[in-house]
Amino acid sequence: MKAFVADKYAKKGALRLADMPEPELRDNDVLVEVHAAGVNLLDSKLRDGEFKLIVPYRPPFVLGHDVAGIVVRAGSKVRKFKAGDEVYARPRDGRIGTFAEFIAMDEADVALKPKNLSMEEAASIPLVGLTAWQVLVERAGLRKGQKVFIQAGSGGVGTFAIQLAKHLGATVATTASAANMGLVKSLGADVVVDYRRDDFEKVLQGYDVIVNSQDAKTLEKSLRVLKPGGKLISISGPPDPGFARKQGLNVVLKLVLRLLSLGIRRKAKRAGVDYSFLFMWAQGDQLSRITSLIETGVIRPVMDRTFPFEQTNEALAYVETGRAKGKVVVKVR
């Protein structure tokens, strides 16, 4: 099969289009013919080596964390899917590789594709949808009447999280450029801060939950926007001891992550708020619940551009500019 391969960890390194063996099918796996693959900043960060201590891959490896396609074969213990099913997924860490013609995935990571979405639209959903769900529903327990600040509202996670937060009954604030204000308001944002003109710290106060996706300076400023007892959940770091335990990291890495997050955890404690880091995980059952929200019209995909498979490197470079409105997708088939 054709696949885009990272031959080594290298910052801004180009992926190589190569012939690779078809993935091995385990008993609990489905083999999926890839029709479309979402492109994420996580792919760039993995290629650059930013996560090689936490999520190691042995080069050469195939990148890609989002997929929509058709099941062509099912393992002997698979019960939920059969050949011909249209599915989508975020394959689990250690088994990624959607920039390819085929991928084998554990059926627990997979869900039936929303019937009202194209393959390209469906491929834009899993990683950002699961991230938003795990932050807002699982970690924050966001409730009706609460106030949530979702940073970078026009990005992939932001466009999905705004819609989910409104569905949960929250008041939603976000940041966006003047050019993207109309987009985030159309998704349900109640308060939009133009980050080029205004300082969100001076505009927003008394929030219950903040979803941080930006740099360390923004993370620290976010503490001052929360009410006492509020929750600051970061999807951009620094990783905390809870994450280290969940990943089953060795003692040295646990100590490193504890030290990396020590500063923000201390400041959060002094401010009377809770800090945690979330690195989203594959979860087919959660994705099925997201499917229901999409099919009933509660949430719609927001897509910027679709690239042909041959231009996967160009798609990755475009995502790295940070200018995409919503998601970027590669059409494989």
Tags for this model:
globular, 2 domains, 333 residues, 16 strands, seven-stranded mixed sheet, alpha/beta, 12 helices, six-stranded parallel sheet, Quinone Oxidoreductase, Chain A, domain 1, Rossmann fold
Give the CATH topology of the largest domain: Quinone Oxidoreductase, Chain A, domain 1
DSSP strand content: 25-35%
**Tally of individual domains:** 2
Number of helices: 12
Terminal CA distance: 12 Å
CATH class of the largest domain: Alpha Beta
CATH superfamily of the largest domain: Medium-chain alcohol dehydrogenases, catalytic domain
* Helix-and-strand structural type: alpha/beta
> For the report, how would you describe the main beta sheet?
7 strands, mixed
Description:
By secondary structure, the chain is an alpha/beta fold. The chain folds into 2 domains: 2-125 and 301-331, Medium-chain alcohol dehydrogenases, catalytic domain (Quinone Oxidoreductase, Chain A, domain 1), CATH 3.90.180; 128-277, Rossmann fold (3-Layer(aba) Sandwich). Helices cover 32% and strands 26% of the residues. It contains 12 helices and 16 strands. Strands 3, 5, 6, 7, 8, 15 and 16 form a 7-stranded mixed beta sheet that branches. The chain has a 6-stranded parallel beta sheet with strand order 11-10-9-12-13-14, with helices on both faces. Helix 3 crosses helix 4. It is globular. 48% of the residues are buried.
